[in-house]
DNA sequence: ATTACGGCATTGTGATCACATGTTGTGCTG
DNA sequence: CAGCACAACATGTGATCACAATGCCGTAAT
């Protein structure tokens, strides 16, 4: 009798969903190298499942532009170009600023403390030189923040953008290390939490813009590209 | 020898691609009714193909949020809510303004004349009460405009948003008829083309915002929802 | 008349095979 | 040694079957 209109449950029921989540997390951890090709049978063997769940998962990921389906029927991790990076930057700023401005009014003390906790782990990952944790926890912090904006339309778009830049976050990280060691005073995430506590949406949006731009600048530097305005 | 790195060719080679394009166009024509369920075998029988291409196509469309996969394993056309509409509005304005501002500098006279042509057909569809053409040609005009922005990242996001509102454009259209007949002076698309000719990005962005907002308002009215600011 | 139960039909998912296409390696030829 | 033809392999796509889960509907008990 339970018609159960909810779009989907949280715990994956199908293998396809599990495979998708695993691949997704792997991408968001920077485990996928740009330009490398991904094969159905390779993934299937790696995860110990048959081809079908992998097929559907990769179809999802190509739709989200996390992977690319060349017309030689080969699936690869897309490369980056200066033009794509510029677009990713603009789109992230627009959508994430919006998500943040919606979230700021719904963040209660409990949520805030959890954000502090995530950021603490993020900081730890930097000190420990754990690159994959660094990449993943950065996204996790942003996701946890925007979560309270309840953006059921915008959030999937943002996550699609994340999947597209994630493979290049290793370069951002390495650039991080070469140019300057982690500085507590420059903890942009912590500044965001302060802006939230002071209920200052404008400041929060500025910090998000700055945070995203910072990553873009590092990636441009690591790629040897000219730094945009 | 041709490695052919281009992401995909224009002409669909696989059945899955053909099925996807057909379903996509059907959605962008308003042929899919909100709340209705879509079945694999139903589509397969309708299009005369087997289950596999349909499976992959529907997986793509659910990823783009054009369709919804309930946890009863049923695929349906999503309903609209005031909150979703608000998000769709904000996201469309942000992304389409950006796409337009990028496009305006690349539109040559030839492109402009084609845009006039598309808009002419769009106007025709209104006068002929051809609802599906009206819905589709509206998107087609915007797509053709943004095309010259060469937004390979942002464009897929915009199209995802279009797929989500398309099923509700019939209501926008009917509201169009009830409140006021088509007025040549109110042809927003023509005003956009004028803004392009005068090379006025700010005006173009304003007109796009206004055009999108106009549709949102009509939908809100048709749904009996309060009109947002 | 209403509700609960049970059997049947429908539906998405998973598995397996066949196949067209593209890739790679190898040996022949100039 | 370079260039090319051809075979062997790898890979995504399509088709078909099996199956568990879900929905649907008629029947019967209260």
TrEMBL record, chains A, B:
The keyword tRNA-binding does not apply. PROSITE patterns: HTH_GNTR. Keywords: DNA-binding, Transcription, Transcription regulation. Gene3D superfamilies: GntR ligand-binding domain-like, Winged helix-like DNA-binding domain superfamily/Winged helix DNA-binding domain. Residues 13-80 form the HTH gntR-type domain. SMART domains: FCD, HTH_GNTR. The keyword DNA-binding applies. GO terms for molecular function: DNA binding; DNA-binding transcription factor activity. This is GntR family transcriptional regulator.
């Amino acid at each position: 009798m339970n018609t159960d209109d909810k779009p989907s449950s949280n715990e994956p029921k199908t293998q396809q969903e599990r495979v998708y989540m695993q691949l997704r997390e792997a991408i968001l951890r920077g485990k996928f190298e740009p330009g490398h090709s991904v094969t159905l049978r390779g993934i299937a063997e790696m995860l110990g499942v048959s081809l079908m769940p992998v097929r559907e998962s990769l179809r999802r990921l190509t739709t989200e532009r996390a992977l690319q389906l060349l017309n030689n029927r080969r699936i690869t991790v897309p490369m980056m170009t200066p033009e794509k990076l510029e677009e990713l930057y603009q789109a992230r700023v627009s959508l994430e600023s919006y998500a943040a401005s919606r979230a700021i009014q719904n963040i209660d003390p409990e949520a805030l403390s959890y954000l502090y906790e995530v950021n603490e782990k993020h900081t730890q990952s930097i000190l420990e030189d754990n690159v994959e944790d660094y990449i993943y926890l950065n996204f996790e912090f942003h996701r946890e923040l925007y979560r309270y904006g309840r953006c059921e339309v915008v959030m999937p778009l943002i996550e699609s953008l994340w999947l597209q830049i994630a493979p290049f976050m290793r370069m951002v990280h390495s650039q991080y290390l070469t140019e300057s060691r982690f500085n507590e005073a420059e903890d942009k995430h912590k500044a965001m939490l302060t802006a939230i506590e002071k209920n200052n949406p404008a400041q929060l949006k500025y910090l998000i813009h700055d945070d995203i731009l910072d990553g873009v600048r590092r990636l441009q530097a690591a790629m040897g590209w000219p730094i945009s305005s």
